[in-house]
Design a protein that fits this description.
566 residues; single chain; mainly alpha
Length: 566
């Protein structure tokens, strides 16, 4: 009889608490039965059986108990060995907790509050099954006759898989209940639960509710709650809303911390609102409140991508002052970004001084970026000094670094210095490449020194079996500039002998020079036929130019003949 009563009681308990999250079932041995069931919120790490199964359904914990076989249920209740297999452990009178797979869980006692488990189950069942029908919830809650306290509300808010809008609706209704006072813990639980949602509507509804709480309940909101909201808006790409939360800190008596600045900057940069992000960053710098190193370098990267490199550099200086050292990739990215603008290259040069020892030996990328930027801004002397400094203290310069300086010297017309730099390059064991010879020939040709350019061409032929079309194009353009078209045509034929096929642009410019300056349409026609044989196509404008010069010359001959006859 005792056994049948026990079986009946266990059946009813199993059905009753089928939707209760995280239940703890405690059984006694032999003939006595004590069934204790409590709601308990578990923080991570959770027991394995709660992770792998739905925590809301009691039946999932022990499939065998959910059947109708009395013998199976009786065995599950009264057999200690089988109970252990189902992860249930007996409790002695001296133990006021429950042991579940190595986790000791206190029974349902929380600061003196008693939670009505029946009503809690009813509330959760209603919230989970009501979908978006928020309007119909209040009448249902009113009919339940709930006695609310902080523990009850927090238990509801911390239950997973409840629609976010239903949680907001429940909290609003609870706030109207005279037995419940809004607390920081309850608001924090609500914000964390709703921020699991990816719906923008839910987040904006939450923010409206938090604003109302901040206006009516003094001292309830804290920095953590507001930061969670800003981070959620950043995740959703809502920069203006994130800034609105940030600007409300003072109104609610909260002081922004490092994460407050970071999440706000992130929200604004995601929407490319860099001017507003800079104003927040300025406040962060004035407060000397920086987040951890990884977040600092995220800020620097965002500003670099938004072309706000000066501000990124200021963040870098403060981070260095706070001993928050960046990863190499971020430093290199900042240096390269500073080198894109003439007014910020000096900042990049200063950053190079932060490289020392073994780190400097492998800093070839940032040094190369700075030298390239100096040459682009026509500060060739500064680039040359930095190159010599690299030779002296490292990192060892390669062909690219030398080529940037040689190109800058050639464009500036300092050909003697360019040749010295090429000789220095060779003494370092580096072989001048085709680009090196081409830029030096370009410098000589631009100055009309074609003999010197041809000597460089001869040296290039000795050191390289195949040259680039650009190498010959430089000289052809120089000869055309001096109106020495025969040498230009001769050089065009030499290209093919050395395995360099002239392109359409090469023919086009030479034909235009022949027609416009030398009026030599015959040579131009020969080059046109040569193009056809090589499968190249001349544009219609240049074709028309050849015909026009030819017709103009024939008309001149006809006029001259008439004069002779007369």
């Amino acid at each position: 009889m005792w056994r049948s009563a026990t079986v009946s009681l266990f059946k009813n308990a199993a059905k009753k608490f089928r939707t209760i999250p995280n239940p703890s079932v405690v059984c006694s041995s032999s003939s006595q039965l004590a069934l204790i069931s409590r709601f308990q919120h578990f923080s991570t790490p959770k027991p394995s059986f709660l992770v792998s199964q739905n925590p809301r359904f009691f039946s999932n914990l022990s499939p065998d108990i959910d059947g109708d076989d009395d013998s199976t249920i009786e065995s599950a209740i009264c057999s200690p060995s089988e109970s252990e297999d189902q992860h249930f452990s007996p409790i002695s009178d001296e133990n006021d907790g429950t042991q579940i797979e190595g986790f000791e869980v206190d029974l349902d006692k929380s600061e003196g509050f008693e939670v009505d488990l029946d009503k809690l189950e009813s509330v959760l069942s209603l919230l989970q099954s009501s979908g978006d029908a928020v309007g119909s919830l209040e009448s249902s809650f009113n009919a339940m006759g709930l006695s609310l306290n902080e523990e009850f509300v927090v238990r509801v808010l911390e239950t997973p898989f409840v629609p976010a809008n239903n949680l907001i609706g429940f909290f609003k209704w609870s706030w109207k209940n005279p037995g419940f006072s809004v607390t920081t813990r309850a608001v924090d639980a609500l914000v964390r639960a709703v921020c699991q949602s990816v719906r923008r509507k839910d987040t904006y509804s939450l923010w409206d509710l938090v604003k109302e709480i901040g206006e009516k309940e003094n001292g309830v909101l804290n920095v953590g709650i507001l930061n969670e909201l800003i981070a959620q808006f950043a995740k959703l790409g809502k920069g203006k809303a994130g800034l609105e939360v940030f600007n409300a800190f003072g109104e609610y008596g909260c002081e922004p911390n490092a994460d407050s600045y970071y999440f706000t900057i992130e929200a604004l940069c995601r929407r490319s609102i860099f001017d507003w992000a800079l104003s927040v960053c300025e406040k962060m710098l004035n407060a000397s409140s920086l987040p951890d190193s990884e977040k600092v370098w995220n800020i620097i990267s965002w500003f670099c991508k938004g072309r706000k490199v000066k501000d990124a550099y200021l963040v870098y200086l403060l981070a260095k002052e706070k001993n928050k050292y960046p990863p190499k990739t971020t430093v290199n990215f900042l240096i390269a970004s500073l080198c894109r603008e003439d007014g910020t290259i000096s900042m990049a040069v200063e950053m190079l001084d932060d490289f020392s020892g073994e780190e400097r030996k492998y800093a070839i990328k940032p040094y190369t970026a700075v030298i390239r930027g100096l040459c682009r801004s026509k500060d060739v002397d500064g680039a040359k000094r930095l190159l010599l400094k690299m030779i002296e203290a490292g990192p060892a310069p390669g062909n690219a670094v030398f080529n940037f300086v040689i190109n800058g010297l050639s464009k500036a017309g300092e050909m003697e210095e360019a040749m010295k730099m090429m000789k220095l390059m060779e003494t370092r064991g580096l072989k001048p490449d085709v680009y090196t010879y081409s830029v030096i020939m370009s410098g000589y040709a631009h100055g009309g020194m074609m003999e010197e350019a041809c000597r460089v061409l001869s040296e290039a032929k000795r050191n390289h079996s195949k040259l680039s079309p650009v190498t010959y194009h430089t000289l052809i353009r120089g000869y055309c500039k001096l109106e020495q078209f025969d040498k230009a045509v001769e050089l065009l034929g030499e290209m093919k002998e050395h395995g360099v096929q002239p392109n359409t642009d090469e023919y086009n410019k030479l034909i235009q020079s022949l027609c416009l300056k030398a009026l030599d349409w015959q040579t131009a026609e020969k080059l046109l036929e040569e193009m056809k044989q090589n499968g190249l196509h001349l544009n219609g404008i240049t074709r028309g130019l050849i015909r026009a010069v030819k017709e103009l010359e024939e008309e001149g001959w006809a006029t001259e003949e008439l004069r002779v006859e007369a």
